Amino acid sequence: MPVLKTYDLFLSHAWGHNIHYYKLEEMLRQTPYFKWRNYSVPIHDPLINPNHPVGKSRLLGMLENQVRPVNCVLIIGGMYATYSEWIMKEIEIAQYYKKPIVGIYPWGQQRMPLVVQNAAHEIVGWNSQSIVGAIRRISL
Fold this sequence. Notes:
By secondary structure, this protein is α/β, with parallel strands linked by helices. It is built from five helices and five strands, in the order E-H-E-H-E-H-E-H-E-H. Strand 1 (about 5-10), helix 1 (about 20-30) and strand 2 (about 35-40) form a beta-alpha-beta unit. The mean pLDDT is about 85.
């Protein structure tokens, strides 16, 4: 059997909407013949206040360090992404570092925020085979 590539991934997430994040992480872990490393940190550090200039700056630096080394960025296109300053920052950082972006429709949703549609190199449904296929096609 050939050696599988290990994909370094950043899974976009909103601290207030992390159920989809954890389900996506579980789907990827359970996909056979797919190896990956998670560069995301989905849990909010209460010592960092994202509403304070120092906390915001520190959080931006942390996001850059998470996105910079990855092969691909996955963005769950929940409608909350339209209003999330942080998901916008994740998209901007991914674009700055020329990271391919996969937009994913959340389970049961048929709408995707325009900001995710415009940023994504590929958009897929909530299906592990579709998601992994897109990662394999567009990853660096």
